[in-house]
Amino acid sequence: MPVEVVTPKIRGFVSLSAHPEGCAREVQRQIEHVRRPASEWPGGNLLVVGSSAGYGLASRITGAFGYGMDSVGVFYERPATDNRTASAGWYNTVAFTEAAREAGLAAINLNGDAFSAAVLEEAMEAVRQIGPLDLFIYSLAAPSRTDPVSGQTYRSVLKVVGQPVTMRTADMANGAISEAVFEAATDEEIAGTVAVMGGADLERWVDALLAERLLAEGARVIAYSYIGPELTWSIYHHGTIGLAKADVERTCRRLDARLQAEVGGRCWVSVNKSMVTQAAAAIPSVPLYISFAYKVMKELGVHEGTIEQTERLFRDHIGPGRQPDLDEEGRIRIDDLELRDDVQAAIEALWNQATSANVAELADIDEYQEAFRRLFGFDVPGVDYDQPVEIDRPLP
Ligand code: NAD
Domain of 209: which CATH number? Predict the structure, then answer.
């Protein structure tokens, strides 16, 4: 059994190592944030696709420990080898599953490519075991997708659409700010991004769940989306990924009509706040924006992490018996605090003044870096990082 001292191995947007104890503590912290006594749990059945990290993990934790939901989680993570730790999402899922089962909740895990026919089929079998779903949350963030029918592989790119754009960005390792030119995507790149991060795969999952009668009466389907501030619109909201998210919204409107007709259910997009996650770290300019946003939102007392966001999503919008407040496009907006005028005005003022020389004072670069390392179980309070730990943790 490999026991070793685990240190961060950060390369650009990822850490090649993850700390099992640190990940477990982070999961426990999230559980404690939402935990309600079992006597108050309404129960229910939940499927989360993309359940091992970020918004999907927080959603699974909220459903389980806030509402007593049995869950199936689908994710794509790497187990440990003799000389390499598992990925953070693997350790997160081990910790979640141990805690859920200890609390008497069913927690079934499927590690594999959610875009594949085989994983979808296995997931249907797993859902059959817990029973028809009350809630299905789709929280996938992936760089590529192989279409299970055609066999064609699509790649997602983070590029602007139309004309090249010059935008402020930062090297988050040292806070160096520069103006970078972002090239416009080709038509093929746009189509590839929509094929990966658009609504096609969500629709395939809902088709299968409806065909197998695995959505309970009144079931709710939620897909996560992001709009973000105008500062980042050229690369995000108006960029390739924004077109993919627009496709998700169109898909959700279609699915909403079908769910209403077939099971008295609903399908909504939830637009979430900018958050330090593995997926967000890869988007140009967004990490710099986040380091301003975290600082301003903390100062104004409105900062939230993923678990605070999903707790509020369930409590105010999608939990049992709740009807969501929707914007004029029919979307749930838990990015409302971030996009408040006073918050955005404060962020924009900092953003416009920032240079490599003063960014450390103006932005929370340290907090960004810490939050990033915490995604991999590092910088977590209470963990003794000098102690060797068992890195081979099988999924329970
Ligand atoms: P994340 O990187 O933290 O997690 C992605 C999840 O997807 C992980 O569980 C991973 O294992 C899983 N995954 C990736 N490829 C897979 C595959 N092929 N098969 C099965 N599972 C796979 O991502 P995140 O930032 O939490 O993003 C999740 C959703 O939330 C996305 O739709 C994203 O657009 C949205 N969102 C993110 C932010 C943000 O700032 N991070 C803000 C608003 C909305």
Answer: 3.40.50.720
